[in-house]
Recover the amino acids of this structure.
């Protein structure tokens, strides 16, 4: 692509926009120096020159006082010197009158003339004052200004928007983040460490002829620390960090996106080695489709520009491009070709250990009670992302402040788990006594069914304090460890537990309410997955009837079977949920006394712990 190569060169030779203030500064200083010189010189010169009349000059000549004279025909004047005592010399000047005898007079008086007369005692000093000193001043101030600019780039508010296209390119001289700030994510860090090493010593790689990938793609669900990891790479390698979000590229005017890409890469080239980070790359990197109807020219142009820039720049220079996305399957295959984002680094949701580590990282910045059990909090937050865990710690700190405490306690953390994961507590929501009763039985129904089955996660908390998420009650079950596999029996138990709430309502009140909507949804989802994805039904065996199309962002599924089969799946799902519902009803009938006792207790207390629940159940 010759066009590209030329453009790159041209760009590189151009004056950088961010250098403009410096250039202007030098220009102003130079001007000031010239003005100072112009003002200073006549002053210095005239200080000692006394103007005299021509006749006086002739008199002085005849008296033999004059030893030198300079005839300035342009200025139409004669400047002459009269030696005084010692080294002193007095300077005089007089107008040139066109006296024809001037030469004769000068010769007669034995005056050296038509020679330049030193106007000052020390030519060296004058030179220093008029040239060297201002130059020193300029460079000194320039240096200070450079330092100030550098400080501004790497300081507290490093976000600077510059460039001709007006793109919001965030440049940080130092991100200040290191791998120590990223808890867990060991595999991702391992993969990125090589890039850090390359940025440290590119010669070592160039010597052997090894080419590091130009780009790496961080793939994972939102909030798992992809941005954080990219910053940490820059921080570890002590190189500048340029970042831009894919959505920033999407502009109103066609061609702006492409200009932004060009801007970004030109700046990065200037500052190499450095990291360029493109967040949400899927917004520009979506698959291009041939159909012209929807034709998003702008996005396509931007993507094309990105692709050609990636091909155009020299990987040996040490510009590493990182990008992040949570929908890798929607990316244009051209982006993933060798030489572009050919390295894919998965950044997954943290596991139990990872969650504990993340909590601890964020707890460092907060004053905590001694002996906080982070493990317990980690266990209660299965499926939470790093961002959510960071939020939990912050919510806990906020709660401690609200309560007027100086330290964050276990209680604050546990409370904020619910705040973040299940919505804020809504203490002032008004429920009628009857409604509260229904909710209490419903929640105890869940808990009892769970407790009366083997292989169910233990109940850790039951509450009928409403959340802003809309839930009127909440039964929290927490697994002892991390679960990666679930058996068919466990899934069936889970469905039965989900139906337990509704079952209790039926049993006690003889009628049903809308309160079970969420339970119904979840139970159906599980039952359907058992049939269509996990191969847990007798009639379909190990046949995939549904496939996951988007692994992240909720895991949407698409049916992969005939309509006939689909209706048979529905039958199987209904049967499975019905069976679980029956089982729950029977369990609750057998434990009707406990159900009443526990529900009354919950109604009184509003929130009970798992231990209280188990103790009452046991006696
Ligand atoms: P993403 O870019 O994947 O959506 P971010 O990098 O923006 O996620 O993460 C958001 C915040 O969540 C981070 O600033 C950090 O406070 C926290 N966080 C996420 N993952 C981690 C982790 N592994 N360790 C520590 N903090 C994390
Ligand atoms: Mg991000
Ligand atoms: Zn329920």
């Amino acid at each position: 692509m010759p066009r590209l190569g030329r453009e790159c060169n041209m760009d590189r030779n151009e004056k950088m926009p961010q250098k403009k203030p410096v250039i202007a500064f030098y220009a102003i200083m130079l001007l000031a120096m010239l003005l100072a010189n112009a003002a200073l010189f006549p002053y210095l010169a005239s200080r000692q020159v006394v103007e005299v009349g021509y006749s006086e000059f002739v008199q002085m000549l005849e008296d033999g006082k004059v030893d030198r004279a300079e005839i300035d025909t342009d200025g139409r004047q004669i400047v002459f010197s009269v030696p005084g005592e010692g080294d002193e010399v007095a300077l005089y000047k007089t107008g040139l009158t066109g006296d024809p005898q001037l030469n004769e007079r000068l010769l007669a008086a034995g005056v050296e003339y038509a020679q330049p007369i030193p106007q000052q005692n020390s030519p060296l000093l004058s030179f220093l004052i008029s040239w060297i000193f201002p130059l020193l001043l300029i460079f000194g101030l320039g240096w200070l200004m450079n330092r100030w600019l550098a400080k501004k780039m790497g300081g507290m508010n490093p976000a600077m928007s510059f460039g001709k296209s007006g793109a919001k390119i965030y440049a940080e001289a130092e991100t200040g983040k290191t791998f120590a700030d990223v808890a867990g994510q060991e595999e991702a860090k391992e993969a990125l460490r090589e890039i850090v090493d390359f940025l440290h010593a590119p010669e070592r790689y160039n010597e052997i002829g090894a080419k590091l990938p130009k780009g790496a793609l961080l793939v994972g669900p939102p909030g798992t620390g992809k941005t954080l990891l990219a910053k940490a790479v820059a921080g570890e390698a002590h190189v500048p960090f340029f970042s831009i979000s894919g959505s920033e590229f999407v502009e109103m005017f066609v061609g702006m996106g492409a200009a932004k890409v060009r801007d970004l890469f030109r700046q990065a080239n200037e500052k190499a080695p450095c990291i360029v980070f493109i967040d949400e790359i899927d917004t520009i990197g979506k698959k291009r489709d041939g159909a012209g109807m929807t034709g998003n020219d702008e996005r396509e142009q931007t993507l094309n520009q990105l692709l050609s820039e990636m091909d155009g720049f020299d990987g040996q220079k040490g510009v590493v491009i990182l990008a992040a996305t949570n929908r890798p399957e929607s990316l244009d295959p051209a982006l993933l070709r060798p030489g572009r984002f050919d390295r894919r680094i998965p950044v997954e949701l943290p596991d139990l250990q990872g969650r504990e580590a993340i909590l601890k990282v964020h707890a460092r910045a907060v004053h905590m009670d001694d002996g906080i059990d982070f493990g317990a909090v980690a266990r209660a937050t299965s499926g939470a992302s790093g961002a959510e865990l960071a939020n939990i710690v912050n919510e806990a700190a906020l709660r401690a402040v609200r309560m007027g405490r100086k330290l964050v306690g276990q209680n604050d953390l546990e409370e904020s788990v619910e705040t973040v994961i299940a919505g804020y507590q809504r203490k002032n929501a008004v429920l009628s006594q009857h409604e509260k009763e229904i909710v209490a039985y419903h929640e105890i129904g869940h808990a009892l069914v769970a407790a009366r089955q083997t292989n169910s996660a233990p109940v850790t908390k039951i509450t009928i304090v409403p959340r802003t998420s809309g839930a009127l009650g909440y039964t929290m079950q927490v697994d002892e460890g991390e679960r990666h596999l679930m058996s068919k029996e466990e899934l069936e138990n889970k469905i039965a537990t989900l139906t337990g709430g509704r079952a209790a309502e039926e049993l006690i009140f003889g009628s049903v309410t809308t309160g079970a909507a969420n339970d119904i949804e979840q139970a159906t989802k599980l039952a359907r997955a058992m049939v269509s994805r996990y191969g847990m039904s007798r009639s379909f065996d190990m046949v995939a009837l549904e496939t996951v199309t988007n692994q992240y962002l909720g895991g949407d599924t698409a049916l992969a079977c005939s309509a006939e089969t689909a209706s048979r799946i529905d039958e199987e799902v209904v049967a499975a949920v019905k069976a679980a519902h029956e089982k729950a009803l029977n369990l609750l009938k057998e434990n009707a006394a406990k159900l009443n006792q526990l529900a009354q207790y919950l109604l009184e207390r509003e929130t009970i712990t798992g231990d209280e629940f188990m103790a009452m159940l046991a006696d």
Summary: The longest helix spans residues 123-154. The first strand starts at residue 49 and ends at 51. Residues 226-227, 279, 324 surround magnesium ion (ligand 2) (CB under 6 Å).
